[in-house]
Amino acid sequence: MIFNFYKSTKNNSSFKAIIIYLLIFLWVLVAAFPFIWTFWGSFKVELDFFSISNWTNAITGKNTKQTYGSPFTFIGYHGAWVQEEFWKAFINTSLVCFFVVITSLTIGTLGAYALSRSNFKYTFWLLIMALIFRAMPPITLVAGYLPPFFEWNLWGTLPTTIIVLVSINQPFTLWMLHSFFQNIPKELDESAKVDGCSQYQAFGHVIVPVMWPGIITTGLFSFLLAYNDFAVTSMLLSDENRTMIPKIAAFLGTTYTEGNVMFAVAAVVSATVPLFILIMFFQTKLVSGLTQGAVKG
Amino acid sequence: MKHKTFFWFILPTFLAMFFFITLPIISVTIQSLHTPHENVLVTVENCDPFGCKKATSINHEATQNLKKNNPLGKYVGLDVYFDRGHLAIEQVKDLWSKTNNFFEFLKLTADLPFYKALFFTLTFTFTVTPIMLVLGLLIALGVNSFNKKLKGLIIFFSLLPMIVTPLIGSIILFWMIDSRGIVGNLLQILFEDPGLSLKASTFLTWIMLIVYGVWHAIPFSFIVFYAGLQTLPKDQIESAQIDGANTFQQTIHIIIPHIMPLITFVTLMQLMDNFRVFEPIVGFNAEAHATSLSWIIFNDLGGETRQLSAAATSSILTILGIIILLLPVLIKTWKEFEFKK
Is 1.10.3720.10 the CATH number for A85-296? Predict the structure, then answer.
């Protein structure tokens, strides 16, 4: 391995090492600091979070202490979760993500398996269509959804949004699972069939158990696509069915005028925490997922 | 796999994509060729002892009937494409004849809503993509020389800007660069200008959005390149070192060619993702200074008016844009497939 590739060049290596360390340190700072800062600030009052007089107030919480007797306050969280009913948005997001992941994986695994085990010409065309669909911004489809959804009274509900999110994520899911399936040797199917399995049985009893790591990785990305979507969900959900991200966007407009900025800050931090936990537990899976498409084309 | 088995396996995902991607595209295309009905007007002549007056009023019944019979609206062909809100053919022609040089022409064209969005989208796409490629590679090369425990920690923090919801990421940065936020404050002190606000100028807003775009995209190129670096040809590097090649020469002649397929892949993905730039414009509250193609679609669809026809036209133009952008890649894939046969 070439882990020490840069260290091994001896000429002016200490100078180079300093530059490299500085660059990496800067990047980690730039990547992490905004989140740490906002997390810390979410327990303060607005005068501390947005500090005109002295920026150290945001760290020490001077005004927060004056108002609440402690440099930490949950007033922003209380305002967001209880007063503005952010918990509803949280439940909606949980429902949407759960059903999107389950459905995407079920129909995606079936489809990707078929695509990876077939050499007909239409296989290629289906994959190319999926690639083009993957390239299109999902917002371009919304004008097509609205008239029928209004006509048949489907607009604004969670099931409609779940089905739409599953469908627009299928191209991505198919490509990702397809590349995972190609890593599984076809001989495995063949030997199962020789032993008397049908294609369906071979898939269910032999391939899926081997595929679990790939399915979990793809599931993580389906989850992220559903969780992070703003454009489509905010167009398709009615006010009371809003998920967290559209809810936060709606917050911004109202809270700025009412002076409840800390509600929005608390909501933003609350919506970041699940993602933080996700990275903590699934870091290696996420990395392997990101590189999967690259390595396998 | 037999055709029949293939059919049953692919059916659910095919139906989902057919009903919620293919059909909507067709519907959007048809909608873009129609425009909402105008109200049916009737002119009534009212005569009284002082003379006759003509009054125009809306015939509600007839308008309702028209809308009911033709819910799509009136067929207008490509008119919506050419109107002021989209390609603005007349205005562009007019500007072309009025302006003296090309730069001035571009500047005035950029005031038209569609071109304004197009220029920003293209600028964003073609600045963020190269910057994130270079910085991602530099970070990947740097991290490669760290020890294993530290690497895990660096990767953990590096993933944050990409994994966190784009809207949330941009809002968090927006609060920090606010003139009362820590970065905004710092910039005011650095430039000794207490009135400095990044939100007030178009140029600074664009820079801000591009910085956000790079911040959001670096993790992707970093992770992919870092994975590629783990499979470097060890013997080639050793022999290059023996031959006296310095770090820069090694990078240019061995590392870059080795990870070239990855660079192509990251570029392709980034072109797609940056072309749909949307969330940061909402998060940074920047629509006064910067709009994108996705943003104008969203803007037309939202609100109480819901201008579906205008949004549909912008959607089709956006799809055409992404196809043109990706055409080289599609042609290459097609040639490879033909070659394999």
Answer: yes
